[in-house]
Amino acid sequence: MTKTTSIDLRTAETFGVVFVLVLALLGAQAAQGQSAKAVKPKTLYTFTGGADGGSPYAGLIQDAKGNSYGATFAGGSANMGAVFKISKTGKETVLYSFAGKPDGEHPTSNLLLDKAGNIYGANYEGGVSGFGAIFKLDKTGKESLLYSFGPGTDGEYPGSGLIADAAGNIYGSTGYGGKTGNGTVFKISKSAGLRRS
């Protein structure tokens, strides 16, 4: 009669768990490979990095007509980023090119589109003090800075997407600044300037 030790049982259990994990990983890789082969995206537009913009880090938003809107980190007329529109057919239109301080520069966040067709976003840098800004772009392409972030206890470098509540207040966050230097959550009131929460 063979005596089984607890070491032998643990070794067998470990081997069984590893074997099951390897099979699961192989199955997942095979499934990913099959789905990747079945779907091929259609390129609607390729940025040149020039006046049309470049490096669109942020996600896209879409209007009711199916036009997509986004922002590029670079490119535009001053190479400080741009807000663009892509039609369903892939035609790109630059809605605004950022000029840099005191204007915003390098937008990195997802945009926000309101019911009136105004676009809101965050510039990671630029603004009056160079620490970023929140902008509004109206339907005619006129840009206005709603707030410029400054040094000290103010937030710095807003890179997150923005959200709005039913009253039209805008919320977002900064990656740095605030009392501890570790960022802030802010609110821009529809009727008043910026308020940090």
CATH homologous group name of the largest domain: TolB, C-terminal domain
CATH class of the largest domain: Mainly Beta
How many helices? 1
The low-confidence parts are 4-23, 192-197
Shape: globular
Global mean pLDDT: 84
β content, as a range? Answer: 25-35%
Report the CATH topology name of the largest domain. Neuraminidase
Order of helices and strands: HEEEEEEEEEEEEEEE
- Residues in helix, %: 10-25%
- In angstroms, what separates the terminal alpha carbons? 72 Å
Describe the structure.
The protein is α+β, with helices and mostly antiparallel strands and 197 residues long. The protein folds into two domains: 1-40; 61-196, TolB, C-terminal domain (Neuraminidase, 6 Propeller). It is 17% helix and 31% strand. It has one helix and 15 strands. The strands form four sheets. Strands 5, 6, 7, 8 and 9 form a five-stranded antiparallel sheet that branches. A four-stranded antiparallel sheet has the order 1-2-3-4, with no helix packed on it. A hairpin with a 5-residue loop joins strand 1 (61-62) and strand 2. The longest helix has 33 residues, at 6-38. It is globular and about 50 Å long. The protein starts with 5 loop residues before the first helix and ends with a strand. Mean pLDDT is 84; it is low at 4-23 and 192-197.
